[in-house]
Structures are given as structure tokens and as C-alpha cells.
Specification:
The chain is α/β, with parallel strands linked by helices and about 450 residues long. It has two domains: about 105-365, 3-Layer(aba) Sandwich (Glycerol-3-phosphate (1)-acyltransferase); about 370-455, Arc Repressor Mutant, subunit A. It has helices at about 1-50, 55-60, 65-70, 75-85, 90-105, 110-130, 160-170, 190-195, 210-225, 250-255, 280-285, 295-310, 330-335, 345-365, 370-380, 390-405, 415-425, 445-455; strands spanning about 130-135, 150-155, 175-180, 200, 230, 265-275, 315-320, 325, 385, 430, 435-440.
């Protein structure tokens, strides 16, 4: 009797769970989506009146429609046929696989979530962790940037906070779409990131069909005027140095670019630097390793540091510099090239030249913040001890050298005392009778921060 009652109870629970799941999928979630779409209409009208780069129709197109458009594209059809022949599978199987890739890549932008939830959250988190300075915003007044252009922010990659800080700083100028790595695919982060306009990119995928679908989506986004953010380094810097650029996404964007077309393609270089990168220790653990980072271990490391980081509120700095925009149309004219007409090798070389130009520009506008400048003093003199006045004198000499080289130094904010407080709080510097020295075992982290500005002194 008891067994029968227990079994009946389980059946009821399973039935209730199934009904609840059906209600969630068929009633609750569609209702939530409808609510946010309804709220988005008013938001779009309001923000488009003040944005420097208006939200294009492509960004507002429903995800299902974009997936259908992508699947009907002749280039994707050709890729499906080639995959079917090479892999010896029916075309319908190849098409199903291509559609799965398309659904994985294509975002679903929600203006209400972006401007009323995401941007305020980004602003709060940025201000809670950092005092932010910004330079070079004259890019938006450049004659090269017209309202119909497709704008791509090309940024070095120091931290996962890069997305957050840039979204906060450009909230009055544009709604950004960025290429997110596989770390952002998983629930519950994935749906939120996708609703914020991100599209997912598998780094180093060897699947040619996937790359062809991704390539065509990126090209459609450029043709549709989408404002994008790309990280040409392909991942976070593990040693603080600028990395050699990867050209995949840039090549996709330029492969079909028409220099004589109605819509220009504008690259805006962006350099970002921090007094405190929350992932620094986990990145250093991965330095020299070919394996990717563990999302879980990095998240645990970051969460563990946030309480300490919040104690430095308005102490640690994040600085962003925007460089002069580079017009793909003007670049093609001045170099006498049309990338559409070049073979694969010549086009790849031209894209590499442009990628290196962008990275050199990013390096040249790299902002100098207190911790990297102060860390450089202790890296160059690892056995010495310094008084506070001695550190200040060394940093002052370093700043003078940098300014002579044309570097971007926010002088009123470059206070070595701020850096000493942060580095002491983090136990990277030891203090004895008012004298500072590098703490045992701190060499790697100090060098990591010093490396972020080391290229400004080359050749040395």
C-alpha cells in the first residue's frame, strides 16, 4: 500500500514537472519575450535620438529572421554543398549542421535589456571597481565617421571587464555587438549575453563549414551597419604584453568590402589598461600553456578578489584611449588595392598589414596608469629598496621619458602613492620602516603590469 502511494506520488510529481515545463516554454517565456519586445520599442525611439551611431535595422531584426536569411544565402548554400561532398554526407545533414551553427552564432538584441539593464549594470560595476579616465573621444567627430558607416572598435584584450567598461563609456554613442568566446555560451549567461547583442565565436575551430557560416554572418553584419567590437589578439593577454594580431574576423569583414560602395567600414583603435586586472593570477598560471583557461577557476579567482578590490574603490584606475579612425575605403584607395580582386595569399598579407597597423596604433595610445608605471620601477630594480619619495622620483623620471616619446600619460592621475597603496594591499610590495621592496614571489605579477607599457620604451 505504501509502495503504491509512493509510486503515485512520484507519478504526480513527474506529471507536475512536465506540465510546469510546458507552461514555462509555451506561456511564461513567450510572455516574457513579448513584454521585453514591447518595452524595447519605446527604448529604441528614445535612444536613437541621442546615439551618435544609430541602431541599424539589421540589429533590430529578429534572430529567427536573421538565421533564415543566413541559411538562404548563396555562399552558405555553396558551403553546405562542399561539406556534403567532402564529408560524404547527405546535403540535408550538412544543412542541419549549418543551421545549428547559425543559431549558435546569431544574437538576439533586446534594446530594453541592453539600455535599461545591461548599461546601468555595466556603469555600476565599472564605477564600483575603478576610477575611469578616457581620452581620444574625438573619433566621433572625425570626418571619416559618417552616420551610415559600419564602425568596428578594435581593442586590446586585458580583462573580461573590457566589454563592460567599453559598453559603459560608449552608452551615449552606440549599441555594441561583440564577438564573445565560448565561455559566454552557457546558461544562464549565454541568453543574457546574446540578448545584449553578442555573437559567439569558436576560437581556433577546424570546422570549415562553421567558419564559412561565421564568415557570412560577419559580412552581413558589416553590410547591415552593425557597430562591432573585436579583439584582434584573439584572447586575453597572459603576460601583459600586446599579442600578435589574428586576422580571421578582419579578413571576413574585408573579403567582400566594396571601396566604392555606399557604406564605408571604419576601424576605431581602442587601448585599455588597468591598475588591477581581476584575472591576473589565473592568466599568469596559463602563461606559456597552450591549453585554454577554466571558466570556473577564473570565475572563482575573480569572485574571491572582488571584496578586496571594492576596498580600493576609486583607488584602482581603468583608462581607455580611442585612436584616430581608419577608413577601409581610404585605406584601399591609398594602397591601391581592392581586396575582393586579390587571391587568398595576397589578400591575407594585406589584411596582416592592416591588423599590425591597428595593433601598433593601439600600442601607441596605450594609457599609462599608476600601477604599471610603479611596477616597472620594481621590475627594473628587483633587489633595491625605495622610500616613498624615491619611488615618486623614479616614476616622475619615467613619466618624463614617456611624454618625450609621445605617450598618453594622464599626469594628474599618475600618483605613485596610489599604486603603492594598491600593491601593498595586495601584498606585492613589502614595507619595512617606510621602505618599499618587491615582496618574495611577486616578480611575475609585477612584471605582468609593467609589460602593459613596456612597448612604449622600445627600442631600449
Amino acid at each position: 500500500m505504501r509502495r503504491s502511494a509512493a509510486l503515485s506520488g512520484r507519478v504526480v510529481l513527474v506529471g507536475a514537472a512536465i506540465v510546469g515545463w510546458i507552461l514555462l516554454r509555451r506561456v511564461v517565456l513567450p510572455g516574457v519575450r513579448w513584454y521585453f519586445r514591447w518595452r524595447s520599442r519605446g527604448v529604441i525611439e528614445a535612444v536613437n535620438r541621442r546615439l551618435r551611431l544609430r541602431i541599424p535595422a539589421f540589429k533590430l531584426t529578429r534572430r529567427r529572421k536573421l538565421v533564415e536569411r543566413l541559411m538562404r544565402d548563396p555562399a552558405v548554400h555553396e558551403a553546405i554543398e562542399e561539406h556534403s561532398r567532402e564529408e560524404g554526407v547527405p546535403q540535408v545533414v550538412a544543412a542541419v549542421r549549418a543551421e545549428r551553427y547559425a543559431r549558435e552564432i546569431v544574437p538576439t538584441f533586446n534594446a530594453y535589456l541592453y539600455f535599461r539593464v545591461g548599461i546601468p549594470l555595466a556603469g555600476w560595476l565599472t564605477r564600483a571597481l575603478y576610477g575611469v579616465s578616457v581620452g581620444g573621444v574625438e573619433w566621433e567627430r572625425s570626418a571619416a565617421v559618417d552616420e551610415d558607416a559600419s564602425v568596428v572598435f578594435v581593442m586590446n584584450h586585458r580583462s573580461n571587464m573590457d566589454y563592460v567598461v567599453l559598453a559603459h563609456l560608449t552608452a551615449e554613442r552606440a549599441a555594441l555587438s561583440y564577438a564573445a568566446g565560448e565561455w559566454a555560451r552557457f546558461w544562464p549567461l549565454g541568453p543574457l549575453v546574446r540578448a545584449m547583442g553578442a555573437f559567439f565565436v569558436r576560437r581556433g575551430s577546424g570546422d570549415d563549414l562553421y567558419r564559412r557560416v561565421l564568415e557570412r554572418f560577419v559580412q552581413m553584419a558589416v553590410e547591415g551597419g552593425l557597430t562591432q567590437v573585436v579583439f584582434p589578439e584573439g584572447g586575453l593577454s597572459r603576460d601583459g604584453l600586446l599579442r600578435e594580431p589574428k586576422t580571421g574576423l578582419l579578413d571576413y569583414m574585408l573579403r567582400r568590402f566594396d571601396p566604392g560602395g555606399a557604406r564605408d567600414l571604419i576601424f576605431v583603435p581602442v587601448a585599455i589598461n588597468y591598475d588591477w586586472v581581476l584575472e591576473d593570477e589565473s592568466l599568469l598560471e596559463l602563461a606559456g600553456s597552450s591549453r585554454g583557461g577554466s571558466v570556473a577557476s577564473t570565475a572563482v579567482s575573480v569572485v574571491r578578489k572582488i571584496p578586496v578590490a571594492l576596498r580600493t574603490r576609486r583607488l584602482a584606475r581603468a583608462a581607455v584611449s580611442f585612436g584616430p579612425p581608419i577608413s577601409a575605403r581610404e585605406y584601399a584607395r591609398s594602397h591601391g588595392v581592392d581586396l575582393r580582386t586579390l587571391d587568398r595569399e595576397k589578400r591575407a598579407e594585406e589584411v596582416r598589414v592592416l591588423a599590425r597597423t591597428l595593433m601598433q596604433t593601439i600600442g601607441g595610445i596605450m594609457p599609462v596608469v599608476p600601477v604599471p608605471a610603479t611596477a616597472r620601477v620594481f621590475v627594473r630594480h628587483p633587489k633595491e629598496v625605495f622610500s616613498k619619495q624615491g619611488v615618486r622620483a623614479r616614476v616622475r623620471g619615467l613619466v618624463s621619458d614617456l611624454e618625450g616619446r609621445g605617450a598618453r600619460v594622464p599626469g594628474e592621475q599618475l600618483d605613485p602613492e596610489t599604486a603603492l597603496r594598491i600593491l601593498t594591499l595586495r601584498r606585492l610590495l613589502a614595507v619595512d620602516d617606510g621602505l618599499y621592496r618587491a615582496a618574495p614571489g611577486s616578480e611575475k605579477i609585477l612584471r605582468y603590469y609593467a609589460n602593459s607599457i613596456s612597448h612604449l620604451f622600445e627600442p631600449e
